[in-house]
Amino acid sequence: MSAEGAQPGTVRPGGRTARVRATVLRAVGDILAERGFAHLDLSDVARRADVGKTTVYRRWGSVTALVADLLMDMAEQSSPRARTGSLLGDLKANARLVQRTLTDPRQGPLFKAVIAAATCDARTAEALHHFYDIRIREWAPCVRQAVDRGELPEGTDAHEVIRAVSAPLYYRLLASGDPLDEAAADRAAEAAAAAAKAGAYVKDRKDEKIERDA
Questions:
Q1: In its keyword annotation, does this UniProt entry include DNA-binding (predicted)?
Q2: How far apart, in Å, are the Cα atoms of 166 and each of 16, 95, 148?
């Protein structure tokens, strides 16, 4: 897609434009963390970022475009996966990264706000799905490497294993309110590893072929 045909907020800028984008996205994140999606306003973002309203309106055009660009930036800036040499070590590193993110004083409320917005806004939901797809793809190789080492059965669905690690942590954040600490992270990783070793995530060979051909 050319720059002219791209949706607002999706072109990767450089130089001064990159600095403006970083400042604006920081303001977006602050507002989401402090007040939630319902209070996200283009004029307020411009004021907080100390940039002209015209710049924000021309570049992004809507609050959903701002959120989509913020999620893209977060995916680009997030920490690379760990390489510990063992499945359990890698999954624990993943779980602890998720735990630290969700309990961070800024990131935790920000994710809650975005997830809440995604339930009623299609573009925000699409951006959130894309964010998690990037993160799952980043971590999936640790599962495939475990298969190669003989730790897991052939045909294990790497993406499902990574989802299984973070799902209990998001449940604690959004539903149960139970403590979201390192112990919870480690238990989530241990449970996912045990289930994977038992073959719970071995996918149907037909599904495996479809994914390989895609």
A1: yes
A2: 37, 6, 23
The CA-based angle 50-55-56, given to 5 degrees, is 80
User: In sequence order, what are the beta bridge partners of 100?
Assistant: none
CA distances from 178 to 90, 95, 141 (A): 24, 16, 30
Kindly state whether residues 70 and 102 are assigned to the same domain: no
What secondary structure letter does DSSP report for 202? B
| Tens digit of each residue's pLDDT (9 = 90 or more) over 185-205 | 999 999 999 999 999 999 975
pLDDT value, residue 10: 45
d(CA 18, CA 35): 25
CATH code of the domain in which 40 resides: 1.10.10.60
Instruction: Give how far the C-alpha of residue 211 lies from the chain's centroid of Cα atoms, to the nearest Å.
Output: 21
> Amino acid letter at 88?
L
Output phi, psi for 213, to 5 deg: -80, -20
Look up the pTM and report it.
0.81
Among 173, 164, 160, residue whose Cα is nearest residue 191: 164
Number of domains in the chain: 2
Is 120 strand, coil or helix? coil
Cβ neighbour number for residue 50 with a 10 Å cutoff: 10
Rounded CA gap, 115 and 120, in Å?
9
